[in-house]
Amino acid sequence: MTTRQIVSLPGDGVGPEVVREGIQVLHAVAETFGHRFEFAAFPVGGTAIDATGSPLPNETLAACRAADAVLLGSIGGPKWSDPTAPVRPEQGLLGLREELGLHTNLRPVRVPPALVSSSPVRPDRVDGTDLVVVRELTGGIYFGPRQEASSEGVAFDTMRYSEPEVARIAHVAFSLARARRGLVTSIDKANVLASGRLWRRVVTDVAREYGDVTLTHLLVDAAAMHLLRRPASFDVILAPNMFGDILSDEASMLVGSLGMLPSASLGAGRLGVYEPVHGSAPDIAGRGIANPLGTILSAALLLRHSLDLHEEAVAVETAVDRVLTEGARTADLGGPSEPTIGTAEMGDRVAAAVREAGPRGAGSKEVAA
C-alpha cells in the first residue's frame, strides 16, 4: 500500500484551526477507504518570519517539493502588516507558487441547496450556481516589473503577459470545460489594456482547438455585474491573475461566506497547494469559530487532483452537503437567531459523515517535521 506524504502549512491567524479540521477529515478518508497518509507540518508566512526570519524557509520549501500534496491555511496579520517592511508574509505564498511552478489556480464556486437562502443574492438568481474560476497564478500585475514609491511619490506595477503564459492557462480552462458544461467565459480589459488584447487574441486562438466548447469574452467590469445578475449561467471563468483574484472573492458571496470556498494551485505535475480562499481572519483567531469548510473542501480537491482519489473527493463533498442539509452552521453562515457551532464541531461532523461512507481501512498518522 502506497503511503502518501501530505505537508501542512498552518500559517497564521485562523490557519492552524481550519487546517486541523482539514487533516481530521483526511484521516477519516484514510480510515474509511483504506489509504495511508502521513502528515508533517512546517511554518510559512508570519509565523515563519518570527521563527526563522523568512516567510518561506528552505526547510519548508524542500518539504513541499518532496510531498505528494500541500494543505495550506492562511497567512498574514496585523503583526506583519507594514507594507514597507522588506520581509512580509505574502512573499511566502508568492514564493511557494513561483518555486513550485504553480501557474493555475482553480476556485470552484458551488451553492449547495441548503445555502441558497443564506446568499445575499436572490434565491431565484443564485439557485443552481456551479462554476469554477480558472485563475492564472504566476503572471500579470502581481509578478510584473514594479517600482516602489520614489521620492517623487511615484510607484508602478506592470501587468505583463506572454503568449505562452496565456495559452497554457487557456488550455486548462478549455479542457476543464469539456468535462463540465462546455462553456468558457474569458475575462479581460481589452478595450483599454494592451495585455488584455493579447489575452483575448491568444484565448481565441486556443479556442479553435476545442470545437466542442463555446467561448465568450467579457470585460472584467461586465463580468463583475453578471456574476451577481445571472451567476448560474457561468460554467468555467478564465481570468488573468488579478481579475481572477477579485472575481472569485466576489463569487464567494453567492454562497454566503468567503469561508465556504476552496482552491487548488496546480502546475505541470501532480503536486498542488490546496487552501481556502479566505484570509487569516485575525479578529477571530483563537476563538474556535472560523468556518473550516473551505479548507475541508480544499482537502477534497487535494484528493482529486494530487492523489487521483476521485471517489474519496466526492465522499468529502457529499459529507459537507449532508451536514449543511442537517442544519449545521458556523457563525458566518448562521442568522442572528440561528444556533451555530464552532470550528471543531463542524470538522467532527464532516469527518463522521465521511466515516459512514464505508468500512475502516489502513488509516493515517502524523510525523514530526
If you had to describe this structure to a student in words, what would you say it looks like?
The protein has 369 residues and is an alpha/beta fold. The protein folds into two domains: 1-102 and 268-369, Isopropylmalate Dehydrogenase, CATH 3.40.718.10; 120-255, 3-Layer(aba) Sandwich (Isopropylmalate Dehydrogenase). The protein has twelve helices and 13 strands. The strands form two sheets. An eleven-stranded mixed β-sheet has the order 9-8-10-5-4-11-12-3-1-2-13, sandwiched between helices. A two-stranded antiparallel ribbon has the order 6-7. α1 (15-33) packs across α10 (293-305), α8 packs parallel to α9 (241-255) and α11 (310-325) packs across α12. It is globular and about 50 Å long. The two termini are 23 Å apart. 50% of the residues are buried.
Topology summary:
Layout: E1 3-11, H1 15-33, E2 36-41, H2 46-52, H3 58-66, E3 69-74, H4 90-99, E4 104-110, H5 123-126, E5 130-136, E6 146-147, E7 156-157, H6 163-178, E8 183-188, H7 194-207, E9 214-219, H8 220-229, E10 236-239, H9 241-255, E11 262-266, E12 272-276, H10 293-305, H11 310-325, H12 343-355, E13 363-366
Parallel strand pairs: 1-2, 1-3, 2-13, 3-12, 5-10, 8-9, 8-10
Antiparallel strand pairs: 4-5, 4-11, 6-7, 11-12
Helix pairs in contact: 1-10, 1-12, 6-7, 8-9, 10-11, 11-12
Provide a brief overview of the structure:
Helix content is 40%, strand content 19%.
Keywords:
single chain, 369 residues, alpha/beta, Isopropylmalate Dehydrogenase, eleven-stranded mixed β-sheet, two-stranded antiparallel ribbon, 13 strands
